[in-house]
Amino acid sequence: MPSYEFFNITHPAKYVTHVEINRPSKLNAFKEPMWQELQKVFDSLSTDPSVRAIILTGAGEKAFTAGLDTKDAAEHGPLSENSSAGTTEDTARKATVLRRHIHNFQNCVTAIERCEKPVVCVLHGFAYGLAVDMSSACDVRICAADTKFCVKEVDIGIAADVGTLTRLPKVVGDYGWVKDVSLSARIFGAEEALRVGLVSGVHESKEAAVRAATSWATLVAEKSPVAVQGTKRILDYSRDHGVADGLHYTAVWNSAMLQTVDMMEAMKSGWTKKKPTFEKL
């Protein structure tokens, strides 16, 4: 694995990779080089045959991430005096620069969702703004009991623009609740997140949540990577398409998966009572 400036990469179990956001002195707040690096991390892990499941956490005790580093964005972002958007008064040209910037940011966060491997996110402490964008791009979310969530963007004068407003309603299935937290930017806790389905489990501490995530990722990594990656892809496709389209996509996908040796290995384990092992994909 390459080394990264803002992320720690470890391997707590076979075929399991732990990605840790590593800027705890700034509450893991993101500046532009971090979200560019985030994309590189997940694009690399997506095609690494030694990775079958990924855990995403934040370093330190205070925050998963407090969101966007607004001070850095003001000094170095597209609206700063030195940017190409900041040096023109022409509305169309300024909008073009900003649109490209937003699409770039969106693409970096979408790298989590686009990753072929399932990603479990462990939230703790402050989980503001970008934390919700990132976690809603993950496949599974769990949290510590001290987690404080907030869709923060209206408090800094913008609509959340890198995933929350698109993905969060599909994650929780409750547009009324999503409008509640997105329009008010109110802080809500772990139990409310569990009640609406934003997280699938609440644990007493960050350490306990990381252990639970590692256990889940290890279990997933023991399965056929063909089956796991196919299941993730079909679920994501079906979320965004109708039932007939989803069924057709599943049939096309499984027409290949039904020919794999993984299926025979898994079926044989039922009568041999031996745990199956699967080749890298």
UniProtKB/TrEMBL annotation:
PANTHER family: DELTA(3,5)-DELTA(2,4)-DIENOYL-COA ISOMERASE, MITOCHONDRIAL, ENOYL-COA HYDRATASE. It comes from Gomphillus americanus. It comes from the Eukaryota. Pathway: Lipid metabolism; fatty acid beta-oxidation. This is Enoyl-CoA hydratase. GO terms for molecular function: delta(3,5)-delta(2,4)-dienoyl-CoA isomerase activity. Its main location: other. The keyword Lipid biosynthesis does not apply. Keywords: Acetylation, Fatty acid metabolism, Isomerase, Lipid metabolism, Peroxisome. GO terms for biological process: fatty acid beta-oxidation. It is found in: Peroxisome. Pfam families: ECH_1. InterPro entries: ClpP/crotonase-like_dom_sf (IPR029045), Ech1-like (IPR045002), Enoyl-CoA_hydra/iso (IPR001753), Enoyl-CoA_hydra_C (IPR014748). GO terms for cellular component: mitochondrion; peroxisome. Belongs to the enoyl-CoA hydratase/isomerase family.
